[in-house]
Amino acid sequence: MPDIWQPVTLGKMTLPNRFVMAPMTRSRAQYDGTPGPLAAEYYAQRASVGLIVAEGTQPSADGQGYMMTPGIYTQAHIDGWQKVTSAVHAANGHIYIQLMHAGRMSHPDNTPHHRQAVAPSAIAPGTGMFTAKGMQDIPPPRALSTAEVRQTVQDFRHAAKSAAEAGADGVEIHGANAYLIQQFFAPGANTRTDEYGGSIENRARFALEVAQAIAEEIGAERTAIRFSPGTTLWGIDEGADYPELYRYLMTELNKLGLSYVHIMHQGNDALLADIRRIWSGKLIINRPGRPREEIGHDVASGLADLEVYGQMILANPDFLARLKADAPLNDADRMTFFGGDEKGYTDYPTL
């Protein structure tokens, strides 16, 4: 069986190992959405992993949810990300940019245009969000018209083109964690009566159209997507038929020949086994909280082709070297996860 330290082909790339750095929001971008001045150093420090998936990056002004998150839809964004990708490539690394439209998980105070958030339906998530004024309740979003849903697909297409221009090796579509694409999946967040609501096929349509558009724009071999089947985060309820929705998605996505599918596993082992069976491409698995002694188990068993790690890599830029040396790992400082300067960002010690 394969070993997590062995090389693997992903699209047209050959990665030196099967470790993936998870996309993690750090809220250190500039006010206009350009990556911050330390972003290139931060990612380059961690370039020894097989693949870096950069933090959630909005494809449009409507797509921003949190404070100080990066975008990839203006020339300034492209120029900023070029510095990041160049630094990672100079360190012999590989990097995808994650395209994340927050949908209803947004607050007008956090976006450049300060407008009401958009979503499949005008249903608030029932939670709060940190803003410059402190924690505030997230107000109800505005339901996208059918024409606006189609325009949002094109926003993703443009963002993928911009990411490619910025030198990214590919893009990962964020279809997980209660953001816009998963909002379309969930009947509790999507009560539409057009072709984007109701049946499984309709609720999956937006995700498939986004994947198709990006694959057409930059190539299927540079296009990937992330899911978190069964999550109940921030009011998301995908309904009792959610396993069938994901089986349908896997069957349809299989026709596109994408680079990989990334699954944040929520505990439904039978569904995960079905995804592995249906999906013929590379599968990346993220098991939140996976202990150190289980690193490599999913690759060794054949369930995954690559494995994702988040906080361990955040706190240990030399994560792989520490594993090889059986050395202790730095603990992640949660107080510095979001916002700030180099503390808890680029100053974690190496061996």
TrEMBL record:
Highest rank taxon of the organism: Bacteria
Domain NADH:flavin oxidoreductase/NADH oxidase N-terminal residue range list: 4-329
InterPro entries: Aldolase_TIM, OxRdtase_FMN_N, Oye-like
The name this protein goes by in its record: Alkene reductase
Species of provenance: Acetobacter thailandicus
